[in-house]
Structures are given as C-alpha cells and as structure tokens.
Specification:
GO molecular function: glyoxylate reductase (NADPH) activity; NAD binding; NADP binding
Strand content: 5-15%
Radius of gyration: 23 Å
Protein name: Glyoxylate/succinic semialdehyde reductase 2, chloroplastic
Order of helices and strands: HEHEHEHEHEHEHEEHEHEHHHHHHH
CATH class of the largest domain: Alpha Beta
Oligomer: single chain
Family: Belongs to the HIBADH-related family. NP60 subfamily.
Keywords: NAD, NADP, Oxidoreductase, Stress response
CATH architecture of the largest domain: 3-Layer(aba) Sandwich
Helix content: 40-55%
Mean pLDDT: 83
Number of strands: 10
Distance between the termini: 42 Å
Number of helices: 16
Low-confidence stretches: 1-22, 32-46, 242-252
Structural class: alpha/beta
Catalytic activity: glycolate + NADP(+) = glyoxylate + NADPH + H(+); 4-hydroxybutanoate + NADP(+) = succinate semialdehyde + NADPH + H(+)
C-alpha cells in the first residue's frame, strides 16, 4: 500500500465531538476579550485586560521571551534573574528591576516564575529572600517551571501559607513558541487566580488548560514530555535507518512512514494509560498533544476513540504488524538495530493474540492494558 493511501485509510474523518471544556484557545480568548472590553476592566497599552503589576522571575531561554511578550503587550513588568545582565534586554524594553525575588513579589500583584529545575524553583519561591517572603493576601504566584508534582505542592503550600494564591502552569513548547507567544499552559491550583491571569497567559500562549488541583499540571506536563521523548527517539532511529544505510525505495517511501506511525501509536497509547492512571482526563491529553510540537492528525483523530476503547478498522492491526515484521527484516538485512520498532512489534503481536487482528491498529493500546493488568496482579 502506498504511503499516501495508508494515511488516508488509517485516519478517519475528524471527530466533531471532542470536548473542549478544559481548554481555551487564543481565538476564543480574543473573542471573550473583545466582549469584555465593552464592559468594565482596565486595559494595558497593548490591549491586555489585567489589573495590576506583573513580576517575572527567571530570564533564561524560556523566561526572557515570555516576559518580553508581556512588556510588548503593554504590561507593567518587574524582573529578576540570578545573573543580572540577563535582565538588561528587558530593561531596555521598559521593564523594572528588583534585586531579589522577595522584592519582586512585594512590588507586584502577580508574579510568574520560570526556573530550570525543581531545586531552583523551590529555592526561588521558598528560600532566603525568596518570593514567598514578599507575598501577602491578594497577591498571586504562578510557577510556569517544569517540576514534579511533589515540588509543585511544596511550593504551593509555602505560597498559600502567606495568604497569597498559587497556580502551577508548566508550559508545553520550546524557545520558538515562547518567542512567538504560542505556548500551551497546563494550569492547576487556585481557579480564581487562573481566571485573573488568563489575559496574561493569552499573551504568552495559544491555549490554556485548567486541570484542577495542584499537581495535575505537573503530571500532565510530564506525561506529554514522555510521549514527546519517545517520539523523538523513534525519529532518530528512523533518520539513521533511512540515511545511513543503502536502502531501496520501498523502505524510504512506504515502510519507514508506516513504522514511524505505528511506533508513535504505541508511545501515544502509553501516554493515555499513564494519564488515566494518575487521575488525569485522557481526552485532555489528546487535546494537549494535538496542539503541541508533535501534533499529528493521528493523535486527534484516533485519540477520542481510543479513550472509549472503540477501534473501528481503518487500517487493520494485522496489516500494521505485518509491516513491522517486514521493516525488521529489512533492518536485519543491513545489520541495523531498531530496538524501538522491535518492542512495538512485540506489542502488536500481543494485540493479535488477544483477537484484535481485524480491529484498527490503534487497538494496540489493549495489549498495553493487558500487560499493566498482568503486572499489577503479580
């Protein structure tokens, strides 16, 4: 089957029933803002509806462009960074500077923090001269760093002990989306603070999700990164497979795309199961991934059916496993190791043994479910 025909067969018509209760897109936010602008509310110089001063802690690869976009949108921004020279470009744009996180938090109504790791995030929030020392009732602290759930809860407890509000809001996206204001915010915590800073999130991102209790944002970000990491690993193997070996045209035009998509399906299935296991809505994971750096029609079109455990055949699982077998034979013929594909093949074989041969290839998630159940019963 030609690659183009595979993609057409494997992907059903777009679902029109996917829930969007937990996500607000930039377009929706713009419409809401236009409606609200006719009523009460202060607007910054760039048309951003937010009442108060904004602090920003951490001006690295991500923090600097995020803070820059807030300034360009007309927000009154005060910044801090361990290395003061990194503040200079933002000061030239009109930002103010304070020498400690505590002083930034004290002088601002809402403070954002984008730090490199959990230890830095906790230190800047809770350490000596940390942001918590400058917080008080009525103020808000939004941590957009990527940390584990335990660290996020620790920071949240310290922040709320001051009477201030806390929101975790890790982002999906890298430097370029940060520069372009196209990040995805995965927020959890104080819902009133979420609503309060929504206009600021819309300046820095293209969509935002509210996920409930503190820890859920961190969990969602880690699940998304897990799927993304597996996806990039698959691509690295296949790039080497394609360009380092003298392979015939069949492998380039058919087998490699098929292998890529079936391996992505396994990674995606793992993400759906993990999200449900940690108490997240897998439908929300589908939406987040569909909007992010690894977005593909397969995720948004197959995901909703997979959540419902429905696998109407568009591309039968038995054919997908056959293609994996052929790809492994091709790799063997040139002594090329493709362990990720080999692992995926074993899962598809397991799915066939469960009687799923004639179901859609997305039914491979059932093999993963069976594996998890078997492990938990031991």
């Amino acid at each position: 089957m030609p690659a183009a025909a595979f993609f057409s067969a494997a992907l059903p018509p777009p679902s029109r029933t996917l829930s969007r209760r937990l996500v607000v897109s930039r377009a929706a936010a713009a419409a809401a803002s236009a409606s609200a602008s006719s009523s009460s509310g202060w607007q910054g110089g760039g048309g951003v509806e937010f009442q108060g001063k904004v602090g920003f802690l951490g001006l690295g690869i991500m923090g600097a462009p995020m803070a820059s976009n807030l300034i360009k949108a007309g927000c009154d921004v005060t910044v801090w960074n361990r290395t003061k020279s990194k503040c200079d470009p933002l000061l030239s744009l009109g930002a103010k500077y304070e020498p400690t996180p505590a002083q930034v938090a004290s002088s601002c109504d809402v403070t954002f923090a984008m730090l490199a790791d959990p230890q830095s995030a906790a230190e800047v929030a809770c350490g000596s001269s940390g942001a918590a020392e400058g917080l008080a009732p009525g103020k808000g602290y939004v941590d957009v760093s990527t940390v584990d759930g335990a660290t996020s809860k620790l920071i949240g407890e310290r922040i709320t002990s001051t009477g201030a509000s806390f929101l975790e809001a890790p982002v999906s996206g890298s430097k370029k989306p940060a520069e372009d204001g196209l990040l995805i915010f995965l927020t959890a915590g104080d819902e009133s603070l979420y609503k309060r800073v929504a206009p600021l999130l819309d300046v820095m991102g293209k969509s935002r999700f509210y996920l409930g209790d503190v820890g859920n944002g961190a969990a969602m970000k880690l699940v998304v990164n897990m799927v993304m990491g597996r996806w990039h690993k698959i691509i690295r193997y296949l790039v080497h497979f394609k360009f380092e070996q003298n392979l015939w045209m069949l492998s380039l035009n058919v087998l490699v795309p098929l292998v890529k998509y079936c391996s992505m399906m396994v990674s995606f299935s793992e993400g759906l199961l993990l999200s449900e296991k940690v108490g997240l809505d897998p439908n929300t994971l589908v939406e987040v991934i569909s909007q992010g750096a690894i977005s593909a029609p397969m995720f948004s079109l197959k995901g909703p059916s997979m959540v419902k455990a429905a696998y109407p055949p568009a591309f039968p699982l038995k054919h997908q496993q056959k293609d994996l077998r052929l790809a492994l034979a091709l790799a063997e013929s040139v002594s090329q190791s493709i362990p990720t594909v080999a692992a995926a093949n074993e899962l598809y074989k397991a799915a066939k043994s469960l009687g799923l041969s004639d179901h859609d290839f997305s039914a491979v998630i059932e093999a993963l479910k069976a594996k998890v159940q078997s492990q938990s019963s031991q």
